[in-house]
Design a protein that fits this description.
Helix content: under 10%
Number of domains: 1
Shape: globular
Number of strands: 28
Order of helices and strands: EEEEEHEEEEEEEEEEEEEEEEEEEEEEE
Number of helices: 1
Strand content: over 45%
Length: about 350
């Protein structure tokens, strides 16, 4: 099927920064001139280019996070499931040799996968055909049940948030995000669950970036279904040099994207508060199911990561004056620090 696309992100070594509504055919950040002093060969630039694909979603019963992350000196693959009704989370994670991860340069027509004898994630990026399909499985160990599933996000009639955010004069990051309906199934031990399209949601995060030596971000995403419509939220505070103009903030309502201003995170007493400077965003996130990763490789790198599941409550006021309310909506959030 024919859809409107943008050809590439870098031309003559210069990154084009801004907001785009079209998927990008070739996210060629590797072609950027990231130094004005010397010409850096591609294999060295590739070591600085952080790449991942991550997907969240679910329904009123389950919430998941599935990710393949390549920081070049370290990598991981993750399947994480939250059983909302029974208040249990299940984490399946592999530290991966970065050479085993090949994050593609587009999500229009590509695949992304990791497979070992007891763990598998296979991503079919088929945005040109208006879907992304993820198949995954992991053998249970340390008391975990076996997990298996297949989920498909439906991109028909959905606005795309494609951003290129500057961290410096010609260094920055790309992200493609959408929040859409989903269908599929999840087998968790002996439990069998189907994700019905009119009751389920799917979040996309395709991401590449030339981050500073110390990379940091705060992020939250959440969604729910009401009267057959998917309501979704994505808010990030990263290292943008202009957080108001260049950000990844928005709300989707039934496929339509409403962009939002820059935000800040404030943490105290195990509560994360998210606000903007224009008094439009008033949200609180209550972490409930923690996931903390601390890795110290000395001079080679360090990771200090928090990625809890929890609930978000509060309000967001859109440009048109509409107020979207979140009432203990299941959410996934991150506080990220990586030195690598």
């Amino acid at each position: 099927m024919s859809i409107s696309t943008k050809e590439q992100l870098v031309n003559d070594g210069k990154i084009e920064f801004g907001f785009f509504q079209e998927p990008i055919e070739n996210v060629n950040l590797i072609d950027a001139r990231i130094s004005s002093l010397v010409k850096i060969p591609k294999f060295l630039k590739n070591l600085r280019l952080k790449e991942f694909q991550a997907f969240q979603g679910g329904d009123e019963n389950y919430f998941y996070n599935i990710a393949l992350f390549n920081a070049k000196l370290m990598g991981f693959a993750q399947i994480r499931i939250l059983d909302i009704k029974n208040k249990k989370q299940y984490l399946y994670e592999k530290q991966v040799n970065p050479l085993q991860l090949r994050i593609p340069n587009n999500i229009l027509n590509s695949t992304n996968a990791y497979k070992s004898k007891d763990f598998s994630v296979h991503i079919e990026n088929r945005l040109r055909d208006e879907y992304i399909k993820i198949s995954f499985s992991a053998k249970g160990e340390k008391g975990l049940p076996d997990v298996e599933g297949s989920i498909t996000g439906d991109f028909k009639n959905c606005d795309h948030m494609v951003v290129s955010v500057p961290f410096a004069e010609n260094r920055g990051m790309y992200a493609h995000k959408s929040i859409i309906p989903m269908s599929g199934f999840l087998n968790l031990g002996s439990d069998r669950h189907r994700f019905e399209k009119d009751q389920s949601f799917f979040m996309t995060d395709d991401h590449k970036g030339f981050y500073p030596y110390v990379m940091k971000w705060d992020w939250i995403t959440a969604a729910f279904v009401k009267n057959g419509k998917v309501y979704g939220l994505n808010l990030t505070k990263n290292q943008s040099i202009d957080n108001e103009r260049h950000n990844e903030n928005g709300v989707w309502i039934d496929g339509k994207l409403h962009r939002l201003p820059g935000i800040h995170f404030y943490r105290s007493d195990n509560v994360w508060r998210i606000k903007d400077q224009n008094d439009r965003i008033h949200l609180t996130f209550q972490p409930m199911y923690p996931n903390v990763v601390k890795i110290n490789l000395g001079p080679l790198g360090k990771s200090d990561y928090e990625g809890p599941f929890g609930t978000v409550s509060g309000t967001v006021k859109l440009d048109n004056g509409e107020v979207v309310s979140f009432k203990k909506v299941c959410a996934f959030a991150e506080k990220q620090y990586i030195r690598v």
